[in-house]
């Protein structure tokens, strides 16, 4: 249904859901912080995720877990840019940069990144301007109520789904006014970002509501506390919950599933595809 244009004459086919593998090059991300913040280990993990079926690698240098401290620009650049360059030297895979800082976006794209994935939906200074300068780079706009340090302090909505949808419409209009074409936009309702446990499960149960925007949808709920709190599981024990969530989102129209557990999620999506479309007889 959707094909997204990428740099260097490539395209991203979203006819069937694809997996975005999470590569946090941080010391403090909630699930894998400190595991891949050395260049060699990051590249090895990137290669492993590609081998296991990831279509996109999402590289992030600033934790956005609840209560996370801000990271200075130079520190984020020093974490992210060498990893993007090293991966690009090894592969022509699709690379996404997970950042809200305009200068990180710019340098990441120049280093070989293909997609901007911004939890603040291009609302930080100059972010829209940078995005507009690269007309073949898609942008993912995520909904977040508040900021990472405070987002889980009593989040409230008049109507969860329509409030998020209204935010998307406003950001889409502002992007278009700034020169970022609608055809470049991907939407992420932001599981766990300024949402209570009840909000998260309402989003999961009604994810297909956001198909109304007729844009690609990203679902990012891998290992999140919505599963830990419901199931009483630590981050490393949330695979089953994460896979259930991924399946439900894919069934409701998610085009990109952002995950830590690439191989397992790829398997789930293959089973869904076979059940929905049939398989060739052996």
Describe, in plain words, how this protein is organized in 3D.
By secondary structure, this protein is α/β, with parallel strands linked by helices. The chain has a single domain (3-277), classed as Alpha-Beta Barrel (TIM Barrel), CATH 3.20.20.20. It contains nine helices and ten strands. The chain has helices spanning 39-51, 73-90, 102-111, 127-132, 160-178, 197-205, 225-231, 239-251, 262-277; strands at residues 3-5, 11-13, 18-24, 56-60, 94-98, 115-118, 139-142, 185-188, 218-219, 256-259. The protein has an eight-stranded parallel beta sheet with strand order 8-7-6-5-4-3-10-9. The protein has a two-stranded antiparallel ribbon with strand order 1-2. The longest helix is centred in the middle third of the chain and has 19 residues, at 160-178. It is globular and about 40 Å long. The protein starts with a strand and ends in a 5-residue tail after the last helix.
Beta-strand residue percentage = 5-15%
Relative helix content: 25-40%
Q: Any idea what the radius of gyration is? A: 18 Å
CATH architecture: Alpha-Beta Barrel
The poorly predicted ranges are: 28-34
CATH class: Alpha Beta
Q: What number is the mean pLDDT?
A: 92
CATH topology value: TIM Barrel
Shape: globular
Which key features would you list for this structure?
two-stranded antiparallel ribbon, TIM Barrel, alpha/beta
